[in-house]
Amino acid sequence: MKVLMFGWEFPPQSTGGLGTACYGLTKALSHLGVSITLVLPTAENINADFLKVVGANVRVKAIKSSLRPYVSAQHYSKSYRKSTLYGRSLFEEVKRYAEAAGEIAAEEDFDIIHCHDWLTFEAGLAAKKVSGKPLIVHVHATEFDRTGGLGVNQHVYDSERKGMEKADYVISVSRYTKNKIVSHYGISPDKVHVVHNAVEKTPMRQLEEFALKKHNKIVLFLGRITLQKGPDYFLYAARKVLDVEPSAKFVISGSGDMEEFIIHKAAEMGMSQSVLFTGFLTGKDVERAYQLADVYVMPSVSEPFGITALEAMHSKTPVIVSKNSGVSEVATHCLKVDFWDTDQLANKIIGVLRYNPLRQTMTENAETELLRISWINSAKKCVELYNKATSTA
Amino acid sequence: MVSICLYFQVHQPFRVRNYTVFEIGKNSHYFDEHKNSSVLRRVADKCYLPANAILMELLDKHPEFRASFSMSGTALEQFERYAPEVLESFKALVDTGRVEVLDETYHHSLAYIYSKEEFKEQVRMHMEKVRKLFRADPRIFRNTELIYNNEMAHYIEKMGYKGVLAEGADHILGWRSPNFLYRPKTTTQLKLLLKNYRLSDDIAFRFSEKSWSEYPLTADKFGSWVSALNGNGACVNLFMDYETFGEHQWRETGIFDFLRHMPSFLLQHPDNSFKTPSELVSEHEPVAELDIHTLISWADLERDLSAWLGNNMQQAAIKTVYDMENEVKETQDPELIEDWRRLQTSDHYYYMCTKWFADGDVHKYFNPYDSPYDAFISFMNILNDLKIRIKEKA
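C-alpha cells for the assembled complex are given below, as produced in the milestone run.
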C-alpha cells in the first residue's frame, strides 16, 4: 500500500498535537508495511527514516509560507502586518499548497491520499482530481473546537466541509469529534471512522530533582494558551486551590493568543507568586515539565483528542482531563471534569495533591492502560480503511 | 435426598455525596439522601416487592418451601425510612415460620478484618435490630460478602452461633464438594454451609447471558440439574444477592417466572426438599473438617478481598477509618459514631476498585461515581471532616 500523505507540521518542527500525531501514526503505518510519501509545506530538518518526505518547497519552487496549523485567520493577518516575507493571506497559502499538491500528485506513484486537517484538504482534493485515487481526510480538530463555537470562520468551515464531503472517507480522532462532524457539517455518520490517537512510548528519562518540588506541589497546564484549551478555567481553579493549599504552584507552559491576558489575569487575581510561566517548551523540556508536575490538568473547552494527557500519563503524572475531550474516551485511569466546573476541578486537584495513595493508584493503573493505547492499533484501523477505500474505488 | 437451601442477601449502603474539599469543617452532612431514597424506591419496585410477593405465593402453595435472608442494618433502616411496605412484606414472610433471618454486621462492614471489638458491636446491633423488627433470634451467621476463614469461624462459634456461611469455589475446596456440611478446623460445634457457586451463579450471573451454552435457563432444566445431585450430596446451597431478581436480572429476562416455577419443578422429584440453614445444621452432621486459613469471599473470579482492598486507595481509606476507632468512640457522640460506622460499609471501598478489566463491568454498573478516583476523593474529604469533628468534641 502506497500512501500520498499531506501534512503541515512534523517533529521537530511541531507546535502541537498534530505534528505529534502525524509522527506517531506514520511511524506505526510504516511498521505495518505501508509506504508513505509525506508532503509538507517545508521539509527542512525533518529526520525520519521510515518515510519519504517531500517538501513542497523542494519539488515546487519554495512554498515558503507562514502556514501554521493553529493560527486563526484573524491572528494571521496580524502577524502578516509585521512581516512581508509571506503571502497575502492564510487562505492564499492554502491555495498555493494545493497547487503544488496537484503537481506532486502527478509525479508520485500511490494508491490512496490521506490528508490531515483543513489546511491540507484543498491539497488532497487537488491530488484526487489529478490522480483519481481515493481520498481520506483525517480530522484532528474542527473550526468549532478552535473557536469554542464563537466566531467560526466561514471560509475555514467551508473548506472543512468541502473536504469532508468530497472525501471517500473521513477519519476523526474521537467519537466526540465525530459527533461534531455529523452535527455541524452534516456528514453521514457511516462515512466517518473513529481512529483514536495514541502516545509514543519513548523510554523514560532519569527522574530529575527539582528544587521547586521540595517545598511545593506543582500543578501543570501544558498547551496552547488559547480559548480552546481553557487556560482561564485553570486560573479560576488555581485561585480556589490556593485558598486551601497556599503553597501550591501553578505552572503554565505554552504560548498563544491569550498569553498576555492570562499573565495579567493571574496578577489581577493576586496569584503572581503562585502562577509561573515557562513559555513554549519543546522536546526534553516537555518531559521535564510532566516530571516536575504532581498533577497535569487539561481543562479544554473542546478537545478533539488531547495527546498531552497520554504523554503525562506516560511520565507517571496523574491527569485531570476535561470531559469534552477525545482522550477521555480511551483513558479511564484519570480524573474527568466539566471544564466550567472550577469547584470540582479545584477539588480534584487538591485531592491528587493531598492523597498519595490516589496518585499511586492512578499512575500505576495508567501505566498498564497505556499498553493498550498504541499507535500500532491506530495504524491498523487506518490500514483497514485504506483497504476498504481502494477495493471499492 | 438433596435439600435446597436458599439464602438471599439484602443490602443497601448509605451512599455518600460528592463531598468537596471546600466543605471540610463546614458541612457534616455526608450521605446522599436523594440518591439513597431514589435507589431504594427503584429497587423496591423492581425487586423487593415483586420478589417478596412471589415468595409469599410459593409459601402458600408449597408447605415444603423454605428460604432465608440476611438483611443489613443499613438496608433495614432505609426500608423503615423510605419504603416501609417493603419491611412489612419481609415481616410477613418471616411470620410464616418458614423463612429464616440470618445475622451479619449491621453496617455490612469489613470490621472483622480490622477490629474484632467493632465487629462484635456491629453484630450485636444487627441481632437487636432483627429481634426488634422480626421477633427472630438468628442462630446462623454470614459475614459481609461471605468473607471467611478458620479464625472467623472460631470467633463466631464463641459468639454462640450454630452455623456459618461461606463460598464454595473449586480452588478453595479442591476435590471436596460444596454439597455437604463441614466442620471448620478451629471449632467443635459450628457447622459450615458452602455456596454451590455453579448453580448459584447460573441464576445470579448467567441467567440472561445469551452467549452461555445453556441459555435460556428454564425452571425444569435447573430442576433436573439439582435433582441429578441426589446420592451425591446432602444439600445444594443457592446463595445470591436478592437484587438478582428484577435488578441485576431485569424482569424482561423472565427471572420472576423462573423464581415462581423453579420450586415446583424441584419438588416434583420425591427426594428433593427445601431447608433453612438452621434446619440443615440441626439435621446434618459435618462430613469432614475444613481448613481455610486465608480470607475468602464470594466476589469476582478471585474469591478474595481484592474488590475492596486491592489497591492503595482502598487500603489507605479503610486504614484511616479504623485508625480513628478509639477517638471516635471516646467522643460518645452517637451521631458521630453512627456516621463513622456508615463509612465502614464495604460498598464505599468497592466503589474505589480499579481492577476493571476482567470483571469490571459489574463494578462499574453499581458505582454511583464517575470513577474510583472520585469515590476516593469524596471519601477522604469526609474523613477529614470527621477528624475535625472529633477534635472539636475532645
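The radius of gyration of chain A is 21 Å. The longest strand of chain A covers residues 35-40. Further analysis is deferred to the final report.
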